[in-house]
Amino acid sequence: MSINVNQTIATLNNLNMNGTISKSSTEHLLNVHTAQIVYETTLNQDANGSFFKLYDAISGNQIKFSIIFTGTAGVDGDTITFLKGLNTEATVVNLKNAINNYVNFSASVSDSIITVTQKTNLTITSNSNPSGDGFTKLMVGNFLLNSMAAIPSETIGTYQLIYQMINDLSGIKKKIRNNEKVLIKNLENTTTFTNSTPSIIIATHQSIFHNTRNDLIQTVDNNTYKPSILSVSSSPSYSEDAIFTILGGIGYEILKLKNLSNGNNNGGGSGYAGIVKIPAGVLACTVTGTGLPLTNVTATLKNLNMTGTISSGGTTTNLTYNQETIGLYQLIDQIINDLSLINKEIKSNERNIITNLTDSVNSVNSVNVEGTLAIYDSIIYNSDNNAVKLRSGFVDDNAIDNRKPSILSTYSEDAVFGLLSSLSYELIKLNYGINGTHWNTTTTSYAGISDIEPTTQTI
Q1: N or C: fewer beta carbons within 10 Å in the chain?
Q2: Cα–Cα distance between 393 and 219 in angstroms, integer?
Q3: Distance from C-alpha of 36 to C-alpha of 39, rounded to nearest angstrom
Q4: DSSP assignment of 264-310
Q5: Of 165-174, 327-336, 354-363, 443-452, which range is least confident?
Q6: Residue 382: is its pLDDT beyond 60?
Q7: In whole angstroms, what is the distance from residue 348 CA to residue 354 CA?
């Protein structure tokens, strides 16, 4: 099949980029830029029609905000208007609301400063503000980078992302191993456990779906707590079953991607990898007492170390990773293995793409390349924000002349990157204790507490 040559070149580039992954970031994909508008208490003395401009990187336009003394505020041609209030405070509220009503900006007010935020990986130029018709009682600063995204889509390569996921899984396993040693040591010394037992941390969060797996007693009161096997900084203290649910959801989506299989991930609906959501799988349990039954300690140790049979053809998460037989360490090792196989398959397909591209360049055909067309791409489009679907050289592939090559199981590079970046950010949140925001929501959450929304669509 014929594939656009420029999309092919962008695919090869995007596979091999090597930017900076920010493991402390509270943002998934987009860099956060902020501009400050400092206003005086005499702001209401400025003239009717005074205005300023803020540069919107997504549209590429300078967005004009103008004060009016009468009439109805709103959009007037290329200008967003806001009403003068009875006093400066009321005017500032009206201005803040006008900024918030613009799709690519958000604003907050504190200490005579309006802070305007836009999230984008695109280049931001200076705000173009007038000297004659502008405000005299406020000063508008340019947008500056406030914080890097964890996985900025314009600079991170797919291979780099896979290596990061393997590294984070290894880090999570190491932390759990250390906590397992503490449990074993305490088990040797006592048969009575409380949340004041030396070095024992009580789990504050347990699984929604697997909270009674293999003799675990569900935490329902002060006498049925579980030990935590993973807790980082101020993040939740997770029980073994909570981690099993989080990693089971991530692992099952990776397995579906590797096998191009259709399955239901913890009740999120049936679909191929990235097509349906991964439901939140972890719930908080109130910790106020000291009851840590011995059964929950021994069951935790057993669950960590089981070695059952993983069914690669399972049509649900539970049929693939049987909660009664699959150990947590086994699950982690399986996910690492599946990621390694995905990396190997993409490498093989990359070599074929390079060969096809070379043949095309050496022939009279400089527009199209022969190869396997992608039928899935990223849904992470974000109103022309170049978030993933248009990342780093890609153009919209809906038109037949702009089709992209498949790099894995008929998935385009941006489809694979979009899915893995969401899964990777959940691992980063888990490994480093991050309370972060995924690309499609303004809600911050720790790992496992919020849904991971679909990232992939049929072209």
Answers
A1: N
A2: 50
A3: 10
A4: ESTTS-EESTTTS-B---EEE----S--B-HHHHHHHHHHHH-B---
A5: 354-363
A6: no
A7: 10
- Res 269: pLDDT: 93
pLDDT category of residue 145 using cuts at 50, 70 and 90: very high
Cα dihedral 89, 94, 100, 104 sign? negative
Angle between helices 5-16 and 158-189 (to 10 degrees): 30
Supply 262's token pair.
Answer: 């259709």
> 66-110, pLDDT tens digit by residue?
999 999 999 988 899 999 999 999 999 999 999 999 989 999 999
The least confident of 10-24, 348-362, 396-410 is 348-362
Instruction: Residue 79: count other Cβ atoms within 10 Å of its Cβ.
Output: 15
What's the token pair of residue 341?
Answer: 């196989």
Q: CB atoms < 10 A from the CB of 365, how many? A: 13
The whole-angstrom separation of Cα 145 and Cα 143 is 7
User: Strand, coil or helix: what is 343?
Assistant: helix
Bridge partner list, 368: 4
Distance, CA of 89 to CA of 49 (rounded, Å): 18
Instruction: Pull the structure tokens for residue 356.
Output: 């096809």
* Residue 271 bridge partners (DSSP): 263
Say whether pLDDT at 400 is over 50.
Answer: yes
SS3 68: strand
Q: Which residue in the block uniquely carries the two structure tokens 């978030």? A: 387
CB 265 within 8 A of CB 273: no
Q: Count the Cβ atoms, other than its own, within 10 Å of residue 402.
A: 15
pLDDT in the model for residue 227:
93
Residue 194 to residue 224: CA distance in whole angstroms: 10
Q: Inform me whether the pLDDT recorded for 363 exceeds 80.
A: no
3-class secondary-structure state, position 139: strand
**Angle CA(265)–CA(268)–CA(272) in degrees, nearest 5?**
60
State the pLDDT confidence band at 361, using cuts at 50, 70 and 90: low
CB atoms within 10 A of CB 314: 18
Give CA–CA dist 114/108, Å, rounded. Answer: 6
Residues contacting 47, CB < 8 A, separation 6+ = none
Residues forming a β-bridge with 51: 66, 134
What CA–CA distance (Å, rounded) separates 162 from 52?
A: 44
Between CA 44 and CA 173 the distance in angstroms is 59
Cα 157 to Cα 161: distance, rounded to the nearest angstrom: 6
Shortest CA distance to 158 belongs to which of 349, 332, 337? 349
**Number of Cβ atoms within 10 Å of the Cβ of 160:** 18
CA distance 237 to 224: 15
- Please report, for the chain, the start and end positions of each structural domain, with discontinuous segments joined by +: 1-30+152-459, 32-147
